[in-house]
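If you are new to this repository, start here. Below is one unmodified record pulled from the training split, so you can see the exact layout before writing a loader.
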Amino acid sequence: MNRSPLCRLILSYTFFAILMSFSIILSAQPVLTGQDTTAQDTQQPIRGRVTDRNTGQPIVGVTIQFKTSCCCEEKGDNCQCISGANGSFIIPYKSTGSYCNMQPDEDCGIQKDTLIISAVNYQTTTFILDQGQVNAPITVELTPSDNNLAEVLVTAARFRQNRSDIPAAIGIVDSLQLALTKATSINQLINQVPGVFMADLGNEQHEMSIRQPITTKSLFLYLEDGMPIRASGLYNHNALLEMNLAATNRIEVLKGPASAQYGPEAIGGAVNLISATAPPELSGKLTVEADNNGYKKSSVRIGDSFGKLGVILSGYYANRHNGPIDYSDFHKSAFTLNSVYQFSPSLRWENKATYVDYYADMSGSLDSLAFAQKDFTSHYRFTYRKVKAFRTSSILTKAWNQQATTKFSFMYRSNQTGQNPSYRIKDNKTDPLSASGEINMNAFRSYVGLLQHHQQFKWQNSVLIMGLNADISPSQYQAQFISIRKNNAGDYIHFNSPDSLLTDYHTDINNYAAFVQWQMDLASGLRLTLAGRYDRFDYDFKNHLNSTAVSGAPSSMVRFNHWTPKAGLNYNLKQAGFYANYAEGFVPPQVTELFNNVKVPFLDPQVFHNYEIGGWWRLKKSKMRLDWSLYRMNGTGEIISVRNNDGSSENKNAGKTSHTGLELGISYKPGHQWDLRLGGTLASHKFREETQGTVVLDGNHMQAAPAWLGNGVISYRPDFIKGLHVSLEYQQVGRYYMDDANTTRYKGFRVINLRAGYQWGKTELWAHALNLLDQYYADVATKSSYGYSYNPGNPFTLAIGLAYNF
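And here is the target side for that same chain:
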C-alpha cells in the first residue's frame, strides 16, 4: 500500500518514540535536579558556572563534585554533576550547620565545604564554599593545563564523546588557537590540521582538500553545531563563506567518510564549526583590524546571562578595496544571535540565528602568460558573486535521567546565490569584439527536523544513539543569456540581456533518514562501534522550459535510496591507543549534475569505501603526543563527463578512483611557555578507471592532488613579559599534476607566517606578517582544454589589529 511522505514520516517518528521510551524504562534513574522532593529545610542547591580563565568562555562537560559524600542530598548519591551547554551547573547540597567534610586529619574550619572541579585539558581545582555563598551563584575559572594533550570531547555523533572512543581521525582547532591566531578566514585555522588544505580563492572563497585532491566537487560536508548548513544535493564549494567566524569557539574536522553519522557528502571529511555560548556575566569584545592589501574588518561579541537565560551576539563587517588583484573588491556582513534557556538542570532550550550578506567581484583566474609576468590586470568589469544566507535553529534537550537524553532540533534555511560568472563567458569565434555569458541565480529554502536519543547502559558500558531526520528543501535555478561587448584591449566592458532563458526549473528535494550507533566494551580498553544510516532522496523536478532549451530534461520524479554502514574498534592503553574502521560514504547526484545542460537525467549516487587504521601515543611524560592514521579509500560510480560521438557531452557513473594516505601529527609542550605542533600528509590520488573523451586515464594521478601537505607552528608565551605571544608557522603544499592526463606539473609552494600579540589588561594589540618572505605562488593551478588557470596566493601581508575586552 502506498503512503505519502508525511504518513511515512509520522509512522517513523512514532516507532522511534516507542523505542526511546523502552530504552528509558530499562535504565530509569532520577536525574539530579537540585529540587527538594522531600521538603527538608536543610537542603539547598549550589548554583554556578565554569569558565575558561584565558578566553572567558563557558566550559561544557566539567565534573563538579563534593570532596566527601556527607553533603549529598541522600546517602549513596554520587555527589556530582556535569556542567551544561552554557557552563552552568546545579548540585544538591545538604547543610548541616557545620563543616560537612570534617575528617580527623583535616584542618577544615567551620561552616565550609569543598568542591572538586575537573575537566579534560584543564587543571583540577578546589573551591572552598562559605556557608553564605550557598544561595548566591558562584563562578569558577579553570586554567588550561600545561600539558594540553589530554583526550578532548568532540561531537562526532552530535552528542559529546571522549575522543579516544571514536574510531576515526579527528583534528581540533580549540578556542585558544582561535584566540591567538586572530584569523581573518577559516583556511588560516583548519590548514593547521594534518591532512587538510583549504585553498584560498580570495575573499573567503575556497576549494577543499581532505583525503581528496583540491577540488570543487561535492565531497565535503560543512556543519554548524552538528547541523549541515546547506541541503544535500545543493552543494556549493564556497559554502564556508556563509559561516560567521566571529561566532565560532571551536572547529572540529572529522576526516574520512562520516555519512553514517551526518549523511551524504561527508566523504573526504566533515568540518564542524562550534558556536560560542553566553558568558556568565556581561562581557564582550570589540575588534578592528586592517592590512596593507586593502582589507579592513571590525567585529563585536557581547553576551550576558540573566538567571536561566544566556544570550550572546557575535558579528563582523569586512571589506576589501583595491587589493593586489585587479577587480577583486568584496564586502561581507555576518551576525549570529545565540541564546540558551535552562528551564531546569534536565531541560535546556537553545536557539540560534545567523545572517550573512556577501558580495564579491569575480576577477577570474590568471592564464599562464599573466601568471608568469605577474600581470594582475583583469579583463572582467561586471562579473560578480553575491550571497544572502539566513539560518535559524532551535534545539530542545531533555535529560530523562543520568543515562538517557533526547534532543529535538529544528532548522530553517533560506539561501540565495546570484552570479554573473567570469567562467561562463565565452568569446565569439567570428566577432573578436563580442562574447556571450549568463546571469544565474540558485535559491532554496529548507525545513529540517532532527530527533535524536542518547542512551547509556551498564551492560558492557554500552551506548545507543539513534535518530530520525527529515529535510524538505524546495529550490529553484534560473540562468539568463547575456550578450557581451569587448574593447580592443580585450576587456569585457558591457553586456545586455535579451529575453532569453537558458535554464529555468524548480526542484523539491526531500531527504528522509534514520540512523543508529551502538558502542560497547568488548574487553578492558577495547571498544566496538557499529553505526549505520538509511537515506531516501526524492527529487521532484519541474522544468519551465521546453525540450529545445539548453536544459531540456522533462519534468520528472527521481528517487535514490542508500544504506551507509560503519564499523570500528578502539583499543586504549595508558600511554597509547589504536583504532581501526571500515566506513562507507555516498554522494547523491547534485541537482545541477542531473538537470543542467541535460536532456535525459540518469545518474546513481557515488559510493566510497574507506579502510583505515590509526592511533595515538604519548611520550616524554605525556608532554608529547603523536597522532597517526593510514587510510585507503576507493570511489566507485564517480560522475564524469563523457563526450558522445555526435560531439555532445553527458554525465555518467563511469569513474573509479583510489585515495591512499598517511597522516601524522605531533604535539609537544615542554612547558607552559612553549607549544609545538607539526603535521604532515603523504597521499596518492589516482584513477582506477576513467575515460575523458577518447583519453584513457587508468592509473594516472588526479589533477591538483599534492603528494605532500605539511604545516608546523611553534608558539612562545614568555613568563618575563606577561601577555606576549609569538608564533611562527610554516606551510607547504607539494608538487602535483595540473591535469588528469599528467602532462604538466605545478611545483607547489612554501609560506612562512609570523604572528605576534600582546595583551595588557583588557586591551589586545597584534601584528601578523603573513607570507613573510613574499613568495609568489598559486593556491590552485590547473590545466584544461581551455588553457592554464592560476589562482594567485596572497603576497606579503602585514595585518594589524586592536581589541578591547570588557
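Two things worth knowing about this chain: Helices lie at 5-26, 175-181, 187-190, 259-262, 368-373, 591-595. The first helix runs from residue 5 to 26.
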